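TmcB/TmcC TPR repeats domain-containing protein: structure, please.
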Amino acid sequence: MNQTRLSTALKRPVVASKAKLSNNSVLDAGLTAGNIDMKALQKELEKDPKHESRITKLIKQVKKSYLALKKGFFASLVALLVESHNSTVAVIIIFIEFLQNLAFCFADVEWGYYGNKYGYVLILFQIEEAVVKYTFPQAILVLVAIAVILIVTMIVLAIYVVRSFMNSDFNQGVWPLRLLRTLVSMLASIFFLPVMYSLLTIFTCHNGLHDCDSDPVFIGLRIVSAIALPTFFAFTLLMSMTYFNPNPKSPSLSARPTARLELLELSAKTLLAAFFVFAIENPILRESVTLICSFSTALFMWLYIPYYRKEMNLYRFCLICQVIWGSIVAIVVTVMGTSDELRDHIFFAYLAGIIPGLILSYVSFNTRQNRATSFEIAVKNFKPNNPDAFNVWEAEEEAKDGEFEKRFWSESQVEIATRFLIGSEDPKAMEVADKIYLFGTKKFPNSSALMVQYAIFFLVFKEDSSVAASYLKKAEKKWKLIDTEFTIYQQQQEIKSGGATVGNKKLDAVDRVEFKQLMKEAKRYYSEARASIANFWLAIMTAEEDEVADTAVLMTHVSQMERSDQNATEAFNRLIQRYPLSVKVLSSYADFLDDIHNNHEESELIRRRMKRICDAGLSDDNTLTTQVVGGPTSRAASVAATGINSHMTKKSKKAFKEYRKQVYNYSRGNSTLLTWMVRGIQIFYMALASAQLYVSILGSQMMTTGMTWLETANKCRDAFPTIHTSLRQLQSTLQPNYPQNTSLLSLINNTLVTLDENSLKLYGWTNARMSVNNIWALPEIPIVFYNGAGSVNNQTIINMTLMDATSVYIRRTSEAVAYINFNQNIAQLSSKLDTENLDWRFALDNGIVTISNAYTEIEHTLAAEIRNDIMSVQYGQIGIIVFCLISLVVTGFYLFVPVINRARTERETSLKAFLQVQF
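Here you go.
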């Protein structure tokens, strides 16, 4: 049916169709022969977008949306890259992450007295454990809520940034991009483990919260955490691609070609957190997982040498080996630590093995790294061209390049072998590295990652962007992982930006986005101001001759003019403050002054400034130089400046030179002074913040300790009524072979054991407190003793210390219980206890009132002491805050105000001198 329709439709316009379809060989042959191939023609018509099926259109639309989304996502990742990491901060962050990993070797493991103290310090770096341990168990709810808020904030910011890059418009500004960069840098490093730990811990009843399974708050947070956990993990893995800087010449210690080490570490941290939350009762399993994760990270570093700089590789490898050593000893102390003394010996052995472990890991990895990056081995296997060779025969006898090279078992080893170029400018080394890459591309022809590294070699060392771009295109056509695909995109953007400088200031990705956005806003306000002025005059000119223009309409245009003028002026002022040497900014601002403000004098001064900037070579806006000096106004400014310069005397030129020198010295002096002042103030306030944190931790620890003391004292006090009641109940129901006798005797014995343990603990904790010491040390507890065997008539009251009274009470009550247990089958035993058993009378007369009241007094004293301690901590916090406020006012008044006034005076003096010399 379709073929009949097509043949009928094509009978008449065959000649015209032939001209249109001449590019199709099949149809041309059919038309020439006079026989139309209807199937081929139908396929051609189906390729026409008008004849595509709905599924094909949907697939194309989805593919287009996916490519746009991926482009926006990659652009966001490029903007999140920090091209110049602070080496000191990177070293500190890595050390904190090491302490967090090492804490897994000590968490919930009995290391003995000294090992547990050491573990308490390490647990402080796992923020979740520290907060819950030293505050209160319900703090986990607050931590989970904070973690969820941070994750939601990060996701919302990421969506905004990706959409902004897709639409090429940051309508809400660039601050979300900067905030997202900060959150990613924190949550993907030292805060990853606390966030993951908090989200996982909510699924268990933390620290004995037995009602959490029925608590609606816990249930709600568990549902939220179940959604947030995979989202946070997946998002952080994607964001980990920003943790690299593929530039071997980067001065940063943390520069590296890929971010796969971070990917491995984040996965290992997630696994560790899961096992330490859900396998809390199996320490061997937890420590084994710690050993496996740390060993896999060390093995990855050994094989792939992730960082460009040798120092950083050695630093991280030595730290991860210490985690391996700690996990091994943790397994040993768990298996063999049967006593506190033995555990202490094992901990001392662990401390003794730290230094030898560091030396061993340093020497072994340094040997591996030196061999992998050896220039001598590279020269031996890839000989550079020797123009002084004796004859051709000698060259032919030499081995081919790479014939004896045994190091290249993977494409990543090719890039590692060229790291001898770092810090070297030897042309021979450059040639050898080029040969190594050529050999690698032949050995691994399908490796897109190696093609990317070869492109980076051309871009960084040879500064040949054209060859680098060609290798990036080759890498695009090969199969690749997403991180390699992102590296290709990032390098292509780097080539397009060409260094990305505005004025004499080098910009990173975020600064480039911000500069474009600010310029876009300034130009938009500039256009709005021009349009509002045009509309104002148009409203006046279009009014009828005998009518007056509508005042309301004119006032609307005037308001729009003022608003647009103010917005444009503020936008240009922000640009000039941030980029004072940018010719592009100055040129746009001069045009704005001419068109909107009609201020030709100030615009002329700005164009003269642009001319001097271009002549001095201080601006890198090279594409704008012709625009600056090409127009008639700028040519007039150039002539005027040249005329002024030509009429300057030698004395004026000398004065101008001296003026420039003094301005430089003034600015440098003020800049140096302000820099050191700011650094000193930063250190000062960091110390105050540390003091505030210490006081807060001390206060929470005091509160936790005090609550433990009060709870123990309350248990001791409650033990005496329990024992007294049980003794009386036992006396009333005492019968031979009565089953209830056994249960009551067992209850009394268990209560006595608990009382003995709690009283010893309480004595050890509170004996040093001066307010409680009198109760423990002075004999102030009146105890009733009965004299004479078998007689309860003779009494003696002896004052004893509380600890002695408790010990005597426990001993004599235990003897009374033992007597009943041995003689419970004797008839009429219950009636003989009060008159014949002195231990029985002692337990009934001294426990429930005398000794119990003493423990009540201890509770009151401890409560008052804890209240005073908390008040002292609060006063300390208030004092620190007041001191911060006073120091802030004093610092601003006595330090910054004089420097700012001095800078303002010098600026005015310099401006006056400049005007006098220049004009």
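Notes: The two ends are 91 Å apart (CA to CA).
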